[in-house]
Amino acid sequence: MSRTPFPRVLVVGSGIAGLTTALAAADRGLDVVLLSKDRLDETNTDRAQGGIAAMTAGLPDGQPRDAEELHVRDTLGAGAGTCDDDAVRVLVRDSAAAITALVEHGVAFDRADGPGSPWVEGLEGAHSVPRILHAGGDATGREIQRALVAAALAAETTGRLRILRHTMLVDLVTSPGRGAVGALVLDGDRPRRLAADAVVLATGGAGQLYPHTTNPAVATGDGIAAALRAGAAVTDLEFVQFHPTALAAPGCFLVSEAVRGEGAVLRDGTGRRYLTDVHPLAELAPRDVVARENVRRSLAQGGRPVLLDCTGMTGPGGTVSSGRSTAEHLARRFPTIDAALRAHGMDWAREPVPVTPAAHYLMGGIATDDRGRTSVPGLYAVGECAATGVHGANRLASNSLLEGAVFGARTAEALAADLRADDDARPHRGPAVDGGALPLPEGTEGDVPFDRQAFQAAMWTGAGVLRDGPGLEALAARLAGLRPPAALSRRALEDRNLLTVGRAVVAAALHRAESRGAQFREDFPAPDPARARRTFWRREPTAPTTEHQDTASTYAYGDILERIPAC
Fold first, then answer.
1. Which residues carry out catalysis?
2. What does the pLDDT average to over 132-151?
3. Which of 326, 383, 498, 526 is the most buried (most CB within 10 A)?
């Protein structure tokens, strides 16, 4: 039972999913505390270039050619047979409301000809019609992040929302019979225990599992690892999406799918365009197809990266609009990419640029229902760390921002309804874990000290774009022999989480003896119809509980149970 007049909710994460949940929950009168591991804008959302997909036919400025069934069909097609159909329909059905809410928060989507004109809606891989909204050309995520952060800061100023910056999740706190009742956090360098009536994990993905990733440094799988230690079910962790075209240079800067959507092509070292021989959609094929072929072509030419050729781009409609040159068009349409490439000394209007696949998005995560509830009472998850089932085995381009907005709002609705029910009578509703959850290997401590660079290299080789059984088995044995760091520091905590999630990804990839979506097994190169289903996993809980405050956690916190002082 809450000791405050209103139920206390901890929201961990400040991307589109966390901010949407926090703002909507605060609007419903809940006492919300938002935790941000770093700056409020150090998120995957802020880096999202390609845009946000939405079925906007019913909106005044929307795409009249689109329809709900088209967006559903495209999403299910990309998901390769493992999507949750009901969750996909929720995603598409609620997409127009999500876009309206973002606009109300101040997001300025690009328009064809100034205020009042229709939105510019782009075409990306595996979409049947143009339905991708952009803001600032290739700065969509940054504009969404800006607007939602501004709304959060305004809510903080008026006392509707409290924000803890530079505060990292260490572990969830659970209570027998009640589930999640708070969190252990590292506030700067000070450990704290925060009590709550519910915890929402919106911690993003785990791109730092790999040496090549488009994700920021904070994407170390913290929420997924904490949920595993609390006994929550996870699913679909084998499905890691590798973006086909990150700049093959330090930083792995993402060259958006939208660039290929507007005419850029991929060539090998001889200048030959090769994807026309691989898939009917060529450069607009699903990301897993493009990423695998890019890796194969790179290996065939001694490891040299393939080339993204934008020199012939003319923009939508086949002509450079308003008489602009290719260079002018690229700078206007993709200002962020243009600036990044020029900072690397590359003129992409005149010469192809080297690109490589990079870990980009984790389709799997903490299993939830369509309102963010996990298998642990009181624990919710939303955004990339969650697995709602909308992405299946392979995310449709630009559906991720939409998922954060749609399911963030739905999770806030669930929180308001669940927490206002009588404590004793409150039923627990969560995801349907079909067939039960398989046990994950226990988190043993080996003899070899964890080294992040070596770990990432091993993950890339054994569980990267191309996988096989012997490689995965060798990797599993290697990870089992690693000893996670025991220090109470952000770096050590991240390393522990990476090892926890890495072991789970490898176990899931080894178990799925087939190729499906983003998982490609060279020893099982075809999909197995009998495996067109989701697999759920769980490990024995090791998270701290209210009954064993001094021993259940990896770290000693003593008997600290604090409420954040009221504003």
1. 287
2. 95
3. 383
Q: DSSP state, 111?
A: B
Q: Give me the helices (H) in 393-489, please.
A: 399-419, 452-463, 469-480
* Residue 562 confidence (pLDDT) above 70: no
In this structure, the number of other CB atoms found within 10 A of the CB of residue 117 comes to 11
Residue with the two structure tokens 């913290």: 222
Backbone angles phi, psi at 358, to 5 degrees: -150, 145
Nearest to 389 by CA among 372, 401, 377, 405: 372
CB 13 within 8 A of CB 203: yes
Beta bridge partners of 533: none
| CA-based end-to-end distance of the chain | 21
Please, which residues bridge with residue 161 across strands?
32
Say which amino acid occupies 253. F
Of 516, 51, 517, nearest in space to 261 by CA: 51
The residue type at 166? H
**DSSP class of residue 546?**
S
- Judged on CB neighbours under 10 Å (0-12, 13-18, 19+), 216 is buried
Place of tokens 């569980």: 463
Lookup: tokens for 297 = 């072509």
Eight-state DSSP code of residue 385: G
What pTM was estimated for this model as a whole? 0.90
